[in-house]
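Pasting two entries for a bug report.
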Amino acid sequence: MGRVDRLEAIREDVEACRRCPRLVAWRERVAAEPRASFAGEAYWGKPVPGFGDPDARILIVGLAPAAHGGNRTGRIFTGDRSGDFLFASLHATGLANQPRSVRRDDGLRLEGAYVAAVNRCAPPGNRPTPEERDNCLPFLAREIGALERLNVIVPLGAFAWDGTLRALAAVGCEVPRPRPPFGHGAEAGIGPYRVVGSFHPSQQNTFTGKLTPAMLRGVFERAIEAAGLPG
């Protein structure tokens, strides 16, 4: 089975997953009670698969879909403020063909990059439990295995950094002890992969200036360099 077929099989398994009762109930409740600004819009209300270039050398890992972002649109980081910030940087560094994404069919294409998350259902308070994290991690591990040209992973935030290290251990990579600590711009070589950390583009970080556009672009510029992609 080629990488495109493997990624499609993962997508189908993600969308059908109902392993975490709390998350199933929450995502479906949010979908049934849309925010006033999205009244009348049909929510996705299911687990959200990864997406991007099957030939990606860079994998970007988030925490989970936003309740009124990916849980509404069906695509991770699409239709929310965090995604606006992320895709602007991906476009500025040549990894996306447009700087904004508002729905699944808006023409966004990633070039050399793939976007996924540790958890695929929107969690209450953006806080998955350890059990919910572990239930979902096999999807990320399978994506890492299916992306045959992958050599750089960019976790967005400490939760994604931890999840990435766990997924790499699951695919047989030896994770150093003590484990490499998370930080913005932190790097670790794990197996054949270079892991480059970034603060999450949440409004809590971007509105306070903890993460600026220049800081996020810098991480992607480093990822492009480490991946051997043209800058």
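Entry 2 (this is the one that rendered wrong in the viewer):
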Amino acid sequence: MFESGFANQPTSVSANDGLELHGAFVAAVNRCAPPANKPTPQERDNCLPYLVAELQALTDVRVIVCLGSYAWDGALRVLNALGHTTPIKPRFGHGAEVAIGPYLLLGSYHPSQQNTFTGKLTPSMLHGVFARARELAV
């Protein structure tokens, strides 16, 4: 996020280290880490009202970056709850872009160890998605 101008420093090590986000808000589809880090659809659906409320409170959101297909699906459900629907469910993929209502969803593979250690997601790929988000948000 630092490289694309959303953060004032490249790393954060504590709550008091001076990190500031500019033009970005970090949210999650799920609010807790479930057993084995595998949330169920019911756990996701239980948490979605919180994400709906956050998006309603943030009046200047134009771009939503979804880190992984789970986040992509959650974002689609949140936008549907806000009355923004699509006739066909947009497919997730790295670099996917879709306009839904006043928002543009961008997809990225999740930056998990499974994806980064195998090279499925590289730092330049992730940076590219955030650079595109910055370009679209301006």
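Dev reply: Rendering is fixed now. As a check, the viewer should reflect this: Residues 35-137 form a domain with the Uracil-DNA Glycosylase, subunit E fold (CATH 3.40.470.10).
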